[in-house]
Amino acid sequence: MSIRYDVADGVATITLDRPDAMNALLASMKAALLAALTRAAEDDAVRAVVLTGAGKAFCAGQDLREHATNLEAGDGLAGTVREYYNPIVRTITEMAKPVVAAVNGVAAGAGASLAFACDLRIAAENAKFAMAFTAIGLAPDSGASWTLQRLVGPSLAAELLLLGEPLRAERARELGLVTRVVPAGEVAKTASELAVRLAQGPTRAYAATKRALAFGAAHTLAQTLDLEADLQDACAATEDHVAATRAFVAKQTPVFHGR
């Protein structure tokens, strides 16, 4: 029960629920998180997702006690990066619907990486981000070396990853890591309202936008232009686009159904 899954108003809220350990990730918890994200991705009734943590932390990253046990047993990382972290991040980033991180407190190591993999981030005023990998002699994982430099640029990404110094929420917002900073008591409400807004929007267009951004980050302009043309053709054939265009011409507010 270390992962809670709730659906309302077209939004799946996935909560890391191990507050006494700052939501540090055990193997069983990572498996449950992957299952919850996959469930949200495959459910047509879910049109947006919120990822958050219970208690005072978003996620402190890998549970180091479990990790230490694996090291003493000679199991190293016990396959956790390939078996859990990589598919978790791919599910978030490749999901055909927007994902909002409600960062209610500390996000460290893989916990910060999970937040960076989301499409939008709402952070509490007292939240902190820490790329804590080198502090224990590890390289970044969970996509941090990819997402972080695309959010803040390669020079600052190198500084954050190499030094691992905590970054306060307001500074994170100034750097473009965070969409919005709100009082601690308003994080869940703000993230939920944003997710509901997204859930009421053109889901297919959001999916196409996510795909275009990911593709454009690693391909040439010419290749990206070709993909954009394909995605526009697909979106132009959706019910949402046709209905929204008619509503615009009639000076009415469009209603989207995600089709």
Structure, explained:
Helix content is 49%, strand content 16%. The protein has 259 residues and is an alpha/beta fold. Strand 1 and strand 2 form a beta hairpin. The two termini are 33 Å apart. The model has no long low-confidence stretch (mean pLDDT 94).
Main features:
single chain, alpha/beta, 2-enoyl-CoA Hydratase, Chain A, domain 1, 2 domains, four-stranded mixed sheet, 11 helices, globular
Topology, please?
Layout: E1 3-8, E2 11-16, H1 27-42, E3 48-53, E4 57-59, H2 64-72, H3 80-94, E5 99-103, E6 106-108, H4 110-117, E7 120-124, E8 128-130, H5 144-152, H6 154-163, E9 167-168, H7 169-175, E10 180-182, H8 187-199, H9 203-216, H10 221-236, H11 239-249
Parallel strand pairs: 2-3, 3-5, 4-6, 5-7, 6-8, 7-10
Antiparallel strand pairs: 1-2, 8-9
Helix pairs in contact: 1-3, 3-4, 4-5, 5-6, 9-10
